[in-house]
UniProtKB/TrEMBL annotation:
Native source species: Rubinisphaera italica
Annotated PANTHER family: BLL7424 PROTEIN, DUF1501 DOMAIN-CONTAINING PROTEIN
Name of the featured protein: DUF1501 domain-containing protein
Length: 448
């Protein structure tokens, strides 16, 4: 068993989350970029070039209106959507997902996902594979934070874990995945808002930057000698990464989708919005393209959130007018793009929400929370695609074949990344070793 010791104390959580990475702060006073990196990344190098893109569908999409339509059910359960054929003979999905239908030979719909304990809106299980109940000291870390801790960046100028998740009015919808007991040093790097223009030197030349670095080192030595809590530990590596980012254009270039040909940008779609949808996330197709550029640049895990799928009313109109067509175009473009660029075996994609929706349509033409079963879509990763895993009954209410826990998907993703989730442990805040997934959850053999 490989044990990777974690910190036995909490890191300082008083770090500003301002959307600015000011080079001036690297001199006296602010240290804003190193502090943000301390909260949002980890220095160090790794060897694996494999990556994961995780799409969190805020609010939980209806499984029976996307990949598991129930045409033999009564109308008050079946709904108004109709199935269409896909590129996989015998596999049908929703008529409002025509692009994904054509790419279904490159995908794996999961029709029997379970694990949400109570149907509460929280992205936690989608990012960790665990529930929020009975957590170890410090809390379970997200997949991105775990990969950051175990494998580190592939390039010093590209954070291992990047979150393209803007803040939302319902905070769990805006989470890119929390670092838990791994500490804020392994939280997602979140390049939102005006941050990007501050990730370059601007008018500060390299000599001046070097002088500031020497001054910073002197100040850090004083602060480190005064620090009894240990929160300065590792700051040298984090500060070095701040300078690596500032002296390299690699991350800024990866975030700049204007470098893509217009036909590629159009392929991902232009009907979405950068504004949050209600208390959820944007329906922003640019994030799908940005995610592809980031994994090409070396990011190991990129998370993004999409829309607000919690349609307790006006469900069918809301889904078909905004969410389904925009999600369909952007995700299909990403999947096809990965294949065309030779990345399909090296980048795994998963799109899901925290649970499913009720079989019976309510009086407001909506579907409510249904933690008993939900759905997901996998692609890439060198997986055996063009198949369906799992099944539900004729009402879409109960699992009848191959239950799939969130933790099993996580075990599969860790295995794809070259990690044995049952051999590697990370220490929680009490010093107790914790496996990457619960021991009863194993990688899906159907994928391998």
């Amino acid at each position: 068993m490989l044990n990777i010791a974690g910190r036995s104390h909490k890191l300082c959580d008083g770090i500003s989350r301002r959307d600015a990475l000011k080079i001036g702060g690297l001199g006296l006073g602010g240290l804003s970029l190193p502090q943000l990196l301390q909260a949002e990344s980890r220095a160090g190098l790794g060897k694996s070039q494999k990556s994961i893109i995780m799409i969190y569908m805020c609010g939980a999409p209806s499984h029976q209106d996307m990949y598991d339509l129930k045409m033999d059910a009564p109308s008050e359960i079946r709904g108004e959507y109709r199935p269409i054929e896909t590129s996989v003979p015998g596999l049908q999905i929703c008529e409002h997902l025509p692009n994904l239908a054509q790419a279904m030979d490159k995908c794996v719909p999961l029709r029997s996902v379970y694990g949400s304990p109570n149907g509460a809106h929280d992205s936690f299980i989608c990012y960790t594979g665990h529930t929020t109940q009975n957590q170890p000291p410090g809390g379970w870390p997200s997949l991105g934070s775990t990969i950051s801790r175990v494998q580190g960046p592939t390039n010093p100028a590209i954070p291992a874990f990047v979150g393209l998740s803007p803040d939302t009015r319902h905070p769990p919808y805006g989470s890119p995945g929390h670092p838990g007991f791994l500490g804020v040093g392994h939280a997602a790097f979140r390049p939102s808002g005006p941050t990007r223009k501050d990730m370059v030197l601007g008018q500060v030349d390299s000599n001046r930057l070097s002088s500031r670095k020497e001054l910073l080192s002197s100040l850090d030595l004083i602060r480190r000698n005064m620090d009894a809590s240990g929160t300065m530990a590792g700051l040298d590596l984090l500060t070095q990464q701040a300078f690596d980012i500032l002296t390299s254009s690699k991350l800024v270039d990866a975030l700049d989708i204007s470098k893509e040909p217009q036909e590629v940008r159009d392929r991902y779609g232009n009907q979405g919005s950068e504004k949050n949808y209600g208390d959820g996330a944007p329906t922003n197709p640019e994030h799908f393209l940005m995610a592809r550029r980031l994994v090409e640049a070396g990011a190991r895990v990129v998370t993004l959130n999409f829309g607000r799928w919690d349609f307790h009313s006006n469900h069918f109109n809301g889904m078909k007018k905004t969410h389904l067509p925009q999600f369909d175009q952007a995700l299909a473009a990403l999947i096809n793009d990965l294949h065309e660029r030779g990345l399909a075996d090296d980048v795994a994609v998963v799109a899901w929400g925290e649970f499913g929706r009720t079989p019976r349509i309510n009086k407001d033409a909506g579907r409510d929370h249904w933690p008993q079963v939900g759905g997901a879509l996998l692609a890439g990763g060198g997986f055996r695609t063009g198949q369906v895993i799992g099944a539900t009954d004729r009402l879409g209410a109960e699992i009848t074949e191959r239950p799939i826990h969130f933790g099993e998907v996580f075990a599969s993703l860790y295995k794809f990344m070259g990690l044995d989730p049952h051999a590697i442990t990370l220490d929680d805040f009490s010093g107790r070793p914790q496996y990457l997934v619960d021991q009863q959850h194993h990688a899906l053999p159907e994928l391998m």
